[in-house]
Each structure stands twice: as C-alpha cells, then as structure tokens.
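Rotation project, supervised by the postdoc (A.L.). Task for the rotation student: set up a whole-complex structure prediction and record inputs and outputs verbatim in this book. Inputs entered:
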Amino acid sequence: MPTIDILLPGFAIDTDQGHPAFCGVFLVRGPDTAGRSRTVLVDAAHVGRRPFLRDALAAHGLTAGDIDTVVLTHAHWDHVQNIDLFPHATLVVHRDERRYAHTPHADDWATPGWTGLLLEQLPVREVTDGEEIIPGVEVLALPGHSPGSIGVVVRTDRGRATVTGDALHFAYVARTRRNPLVFWDEDAATRSIDRVLAVSDVIYPGHDRPFRMTEAGDIDYLERFALTLTGLGPDTPGLSFADGTSRPTWTMPGVREQRALYEKNAAEIDRRISRVPRVLRPDLPGAGPARG
Amino acid sequence: MPTIDILLPGFAIDTDQGHPAFCGVFLVRGPDTAGRSRTVLVDAAHVGRRPFLRDALAAHGLTAGDIDTVVLTHAHWDHVQNIDLFPHATLVVHRDERRYAHTPHADDWATPGWTGLLLEQLPVREVTDGEEIIPGVEVLALPGHSPGSIGVVVRTDRGRATVTGDALHFAYVARTRRNPLVFWDEDAATRSIDRVLAVSDVIYPGHDRPFRMTEAGDIDYLERFALTLTGLGPDTPGLSFADGTSRPTWTMPGVREQRALYEKNAAEIDRRISRVPRVLRPDLPGAGPARG
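Outputs recorded:
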C-alpha cells in the first residue's frame, strides 16, 4: 500500500506584515502498476523553505533527483516555487489550474503573472478528477479556492488520507465549512470541503497539522505543533498576538468575471504555453538550479 | 531634495521551519533632471507581501501604475517577486546581478533557476557603481552577498540615507562587520559593509529597521518594532523563541567556483535573455497580472 509522510509541516500562522505562507509538503511512496517503487512529492512550498525541503528529503534518505512526480494541489505561489529543484520529475496539475496560471486575474495576488513561466519548467501531466497517480493514490477535484485545486487521496493502511491543499487550509475549516480565501468560486469551495470530509479518514490540510474528525465532530490532531521563532520573544516591545481560529472569508474582488475571462483567454493560453523556454536541465557543467 | 519613505518594513525575524523573509520596501521620490517628479520603488518583496504592498502604496496616495522605476538591490527571491505589479516601470539592476540570475548556482537556494524569466518581465536598465537614478539618488556597488548587490544612496535633507539590501541585512551587522549569508564573496561582503558605514548618515537595512550609528558605535533605531502574529501566542504549546542578534555566517558551498562559472556562462546568459517571452502588459482586456 502507498504511504504518506510529512516532509515539511504546514502552519496556520500569519502576520500583519506579510504571509509566511508555510504550506505542508508531503512525500507519497508506493509501487506503480509495474511494481516499480515511485516517489511522489505533493506540493513544493515557496523559496523560503527551499533549504528546509532539501534537508527534509535528506532525512528520508532522498535527494531531489529521486523525486519522479511532483503533484501541485494548486498553483498559488506558496505551493509551487520549488518545483525547479526536481529535474527528473513530471509535474501533475489539474488542467484548469495549469491553464489559469498563464493568464491569472489582476486581483489574484497569490498567482503572479509569471507563474505560467515557472510551471512549464517541468514536463506537465494535466489531470482531472479520479485519475490515478499510482495505484491507491488518486486525484480528487476540489475547485473553489482556485480554478483547478485538487486533493490527493492516499489509500494507506491507516485508511484514506487526503492531502487537501488550500481547499481546506486549516483544521477549523472542517467545522466552519467556509474557505477563508476564495479566488474562484465560494459555493464550489464549500462543496469541495464537504467532499474532503466525505472521503477522508485522515485529513492533511494545506496549512495545518493532519487531523481526524471525531464522532462528536471535534478535531483530533495527529501531530504536535512545533515552531521556533528567531529574533523576537514574548517580551519584545511592539510584538502582539492575535487569535487565528476563525478568519473571515476573503473573496477576490474580480471573482465574478473569472470564468468568462478564463474561457475567453483559451487561445492566448495555448500560445503562451508554447512559447515558454525551459531553463532547467542546463547544459552547463556545474551551473544551473537543478542538480539532483 | 529626494525623499525616502518605508513602504513595507523589513524584519529580522526567522523560524526553524522556513524563512518569512520580510525585506524592507522603500519609496524614493524626487525630480529628475528635467524637473519631472519621479516615483522609485527600491525592492519589491515576495508574493506573500503583495496585498500589503498594494495597501502601502494606497496609503501614500499611489497605485502600482504610478511607479516609474523599480530598483532591485539584488535578485534574491524575497526582493524581486512583485516586480510584475509595476507595468509602467523600468527595472534597475546591477549588470552582474541580472546576468547571474539567468544561470544561478545549484547551491544558491535564494535564486531559483526561473529568476531570470521573472526579471525580464520589465524593461531592464543595467547599472554599475556611481550611476545616478535621479539627481541625489545614486547606485552604490555592494558585492559579496550576491554578485551584483547594490545600495541606493539618497541625499535627503536629513543626510545621506542608504538602502543597503542584504549587503547589510540587520543593524547588528554594522557592528560585527560580517555578512551572515554569503552567496558570492565573503571578503567583498565585508568591504561592502565598510563602504555602507563610510558613506551613510542613516542606514536602511534589508531586513531591519532604519538606524544611525552613534558616536560611541551603538545602534540608534529610528523606528519602533511592530508586528502582530496570528494563530499562535506565547502560551502555544510547542512554540519557542530564539535570540537572533548574532547569527553565524553561512557561506554557500559552491561559492569558490562561482566567478569562473559566471564568466564561462556569458554566451549562454545572452542566449537566455534573448529568449524570455514578456507575459506582462497583456493584450487581454480585464485579465493579466499587472493593471495599475
């Protein structure tokens, strides 16, 4: 059976000066249909976690060159930026998400205009709901937070574990059933939360620790919180703390025009995809970003 | 005389799970040689500060479209990612830094392999030491932290204010005279710190509050620290705090081969620069990342 491990934990922490945006990064391993062992990364985090990601791989006896598949739950900045570390990987992304990333909306602060250039640095496999990545590891379409958000359902020996990306950022969302950040469709986002809850024994949120829902509807975390902050302390003058257990939903101002724009842009998206130069796998000895 | 304002404050905070990497972002304003008023942004921060950057511009009565020049102190991820917000701007960057960003070293975790694709989204003006951006605003070459790190010296009515980028991350570096993160040349980095100290009345560090050095050699901060953390508090189990006032220097493992590689890559760099498609200023009404 496939297994799931946390490579980098996700955090539900934030600040009033910028988003640290530490998403969870997961390692899924299991045999493919031919019995060969496969090593799948789910989400890649942003550059501020790059050295941590390399260290976490090493702690599992792996180098970046061992990753054969990188699945993106979605194309937001904090989930995608380290994909260039994995020169031997195929990028698995929902068709709608890949294409959206080439003409993101001006109001979409989580998807910079250059995101499409980044995604095309790896060979892309576009997927849709229900597709198998390896046996026992399947794509679960979870649109709403973004156009092509997906989850990854892993059939482990402890039950069905679902990596949700930001279809379910934080454990508390399993109770409020409202996505706190809607860049695409709020109703769809709520249906996606319900879908996660319906199919999962264990939930691996985008920015929180894995948890189960108890029969009473409470959150039962499976991991402890651990974080060290450097350069400040509880007595630092000017430092204050705010509760984060229920945030108001923010919906992108331009969300209503999103679907029509996306359809209108179809030809332009094809053109842009065809024009991106691949700068990875460099032919320059000793240089380049992506030596395994 | 030109003026300088803090748009986003820089922070000397860090974690053991990833770098928040909140650099300072500065607004420099003054007349050009023809007497026209100019609006210059120095550094652009990473995507996790994008909505905060827009809000800070609005608080100064500006939109992204009002920025005519974006100066990058260097091309590290946390300083460059929002340049696509400024479709009317010219990008000012040191020649060595721009070119390095097209073939970054595999060990350079702060400069992903796709950085060159990002930089070329704006028209680039390559600069070297001593060049004038507008009268009273000059480039100060500060290599060492990265190949083409620069400072920006602003001759204000309060004296010479220097935006240092990460040639001087934190105020304490003015006393240790050691750069804590060397991606290019440690000796050069120390000379650059000395150079900042020699020419500046007020120092605006890359990741700290502006300060003066007193006659006794102490640090006199000009701004108060202010930060709110959401989702945790001093009593959160598993949260700990560490001192950050003097960090050991980290030198990139591959730093010794850097200069030879950079020279060897010259032709490849030219080729890469010529091939980057510009995806900003989109011709699609209502879509695209960069409406002012």
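Student's summary: Chain A touches chain B through 86 residues (CB under 8 Å).
Supervisor addendum: The two ends of chain A are 27 Å apart (CA to CA).
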